[in-house]
Design goal:
With about 220 residues, the chain is mainly beta. About 5% of the residues lie in helices and about 30% in strands. The chain is built from 2 helices and 14 strands, in the order αββαββββββββββββ. The protein has helices at about 5, 25-30; strands spanning about 10-15, 25, 40-45, 65, 70, 85, 90-95, 130-135, 145-150, 165, 175-180, 180-190, 200-205, 215. Strands 8, 9, 10, 11, 12, 13 and 14 form a 7-stranded mixed β-sheet that branches. Strands 1-7-3-4-5 form a 5-stranded antiparallel β-sheet, with no helix packed on it. Strands 2-6 form a two-stranded antiparallel ribbon. Strand 4 and strand 5 form a beta hairpin. The radius of gyration is 17 Å and the shape is globular. The two termini are about 35 Å apart.
C-alpha cells in the first residue's frame, strides 16, 4: 500500500448501525475478516453544538476515532467518540480495495451504550493511555482538536491502527501534527520519552487578522 493510498479522500463509505443496541468497532474491525479491506480510521458525527453569538468561524467538521489511539471531538462542547456506535448512528470508513462489510450479532455490544451524538452523556469508556489532546481555538468560534498518543508498538510512519489522516473538512482552519510527510488529526507514535518532539501545522482561510490559542485538554 503506497502513501498515496493511505491519504485518499475518494473512498469513504458510510455504514449505519441497524441494530437496537450498540456496535463494538473493535470487534467489527479486528474480528471480521472482510474488514481487513478497510482502514481502521472512522469518522462519525459532524458539528454537534449550536454556535454562540460572535462565533463567525464555527464550522461543520467530523469527530474521529482510531482503535489504537482513541478519538477527537468536532466541537468545543461535543463528545469524543468511543469504540461504541449507538443504535441508528453511522460512521465512515476508508476503503483500501473492494470488499464487503458484514454486520451480525458478533459485533454487537452487550452493555448498553449512550454515546449518541445528540445527547450529553458522560464518556463511560475512558482508557488509561499516554495521550495528549491539543485544541486550537479563538474567541470567534474557531475549534480544531488533535490527539497524539504514545505507544510501544507505534511509530512515526502511517499506521491505520493508530493514525487518522487530516481531511481538512473545517471551512476556516485545519490543525494537525506532521510525520513522514503526512498530516494527522490523530497520531500514534513511539513511547513517550524524556524529550519528544512533535511537528505541528496550521492552515487558516481567515483573511482578517485574528489570534489563535493552543491549549491542552
Amino acid at each position: 500500500m503506497s502513501k498515496k493510498d493511505t491519504v485518499s479522500k475518494n473512498n469513504w463509505n458510510f455504514i449505519g448501525n441497524p441494530y437496537p443496541s450498540a456496535l463494538d468497532l473493535e470487534l467489527l474491525l479486528q474480528n471480521i475478516p472482510t474488514m481487513r479491506h478497510y482502514c481502521r480510521v472512522l469518522f462519525t458525527s459532524g458539528l454537534s453544538h449550536s454556535p454562540k453569538a460572535g462565533d463567525k468561524y464555527s464550522s461543520d467538521d467530523y469527530a474521529a476515532y482510531v482503535v489504537g489511539t482513541g478519538g477527537i471531538k468536532a466541537s468545543p462542547d461535543g463528545k469524543i467518540p468511543t469504540k461504541f456506535v449507538s443504535s441508528c448512528q453511522g460512521f465512515f470508513v476508508n476503503a483500501l480495495q473492494n470488499g464487503t462489510v458484514i454486520l451480525d450479532n458478533s459485533v454487537r455490544a452487550i452493555d448498553p451504550e449512550n454515546n449518541f451524538f445528540k445527547t450529553d452523556n458522560k464518556d463511560k469508556n475512558k482508557e488509561e493511555k499516554d495521550r495528549i489532546w491539543l485544541n486550537l481555538s479563538n474567541d470567534q468560534g474557531v475549534f480544531n482538536q488533535i490527539l497524539i498518543g504514545f505507544f510501544e508498538d507505534a511509530n512515526p510512519k502511517y499506521d491505520s491502527n493508530y493514525d487518522a489522516i487530516s481531511l481538512q473538512t473545517n471551512a476556516f482552519t485545519s490543525f494537525y501534527s506532521i510525520a513522514d510527510g503526512i498530516r494527522f488529526t490523530i497520531q500514534g507514535t513511539n513511547s513517550l520519552a524524556e524529550e519528544h518532539r512533535i511537528a505541528l501545522g496550521l492552515r487558516s482561510a481567515i483573511e482578517e487578522e485574528t489570534g489563535f490559542m493552543i491549549g491542552i485538554r
